[in-house]
User: Fold this.
Amino acid sequence: MALSRGGVVAAFPLVPRRLTATEAAEGAAPPENVVRVPWALRMRLQRGGQRRERKQGEAAARRTGKLLLRSRRPELSQPSWQTVGRWEQPQLVSAGWKHRKACGDYFQLEPLQSAAPALQVPPDAGQGPSFEEMGLQPALLAGLGSLSISRPTAVQRITIPALRRGRSALCAAETGSGKTLAYLLPLLDGLLSRPAAPEVEAAGPPAPRGLVVLPSRELALQVGAVAAALCRPAGLHVRGLTGGGAAGGLRRQLRAPPPGPAVLLGTPGALREALRRRFLALERLRWMVLDEADTLVDDSFAGILEEILAHAPLAVGAPGPAGLWEERTQVVVVGATFPTGLCQTLGKFTDVGQFVTLATRSLHRLPPHVQQKFVRIKGQDKLPELLQLLKEHPASSGAIIIFCKSASTVNWLGYILDDHRIKHLRLQGQMSAAARADIFASFQKGDVSILVCTDLASRGLDTSSVQLVVNYDFPDTLQDYLHRVGRVGRVGSKTPGAVVSFVTHRWDVDLVRKIETAARKRSGLPGMDSSINSPKKD
Assistant:
């Protein structure tokens, strides 16, 4: 018997197998009749079996319930219960994305929880300490009430008690986790608990007791608004110092009433210019914050930052009081990612071996509450895909940020959106500082719901109204990707939001593979370090 081409059983003569000479000499019994199946038929039956197994696998994947990773090819999807070992190499959707035929493929990281990790309390910590239980001054508690903030986040529970003890520290936490309050509250609490000496005269250049260095004017204005709300009930004065104008503008900012601000928030360029012209003095400085440290230590700011640090009374030994009559500056370095040269820069002015590292559990991990989609796409198809996304996302669904690599791409994409009568704002580094501040303020107020920008808007800025981030140009580094993703799902956001990334170039695929591997293994992204005492090796 044999199978016909249509699968119907057909009869054909059986071919008996002949005995070998050895079998005949040993008197072996005649062999049974053997059915010989043609090679082509065997291959066809084997392919049919493989198709059946694949369909069964797809059906099993559909039955698994909640997914960690959803793929266009269901057999590559990963259910939430599946665990990939540390040394195991998972089968990646993006494994073949460098081939041109992969265009059109995609995968999506599904949210595993509804709230940001910063709002979750570890099971062994109970409810966690409240702001009152941390021992903060009553005036600061009143300021928190004016901001409608009642419960500390994870980074605030870790950082505030440690900083109140006077230790210099590296504060490392994921984006959107509440790092601003984590360093402002202990700073202001220290200023209130140790008031300035009455004999200090107002004459001479302003000498603040607290200094926060921020990389951009937009971030300085944002942090300044939060600091002003906290300082108002306490009677402390906070002032911002930003550049973008003549030297006389810096003098007016520092001399504006009331004199002698307790806390100064400034950008590196403005602070350096004020120190050079002796509009500002740092000999009374007791508390110094370096916010968004990865930006402050890059090539554009590193030399300026060193000049500012040289004017501060930093400790050469252990932080804290250096004697009964002298007190040294407490330094706090804040960020979500940290560069290689941070330890070397600070080591020129203070003993970084005495710094304590304060890090959250979710540091350098993909946000588990944000949906992230990666689309392998041709460059010529990016614009139609973006326009379709904007069409499917109504203005009432929340704000949108579209990230591009360069100012020229921001301007070009803006012209296209103008042609399609899509109202938007543009933000890029070639604009003046004042123009950038006005544009971002307008976006935060909700006047326009779409912002096309460079990575200038990816760090530190409060974007709790944003519900969709589109990486029109894929970022150059994993650090940039984490900062961009951090624009959604922040503390204070109504919904976690989503991220869509267009993967166009072959070098983009290398980063996507690392992201997909970290997501499948539920581990941190590779190549990052949060320890100031053990810098990364080149």
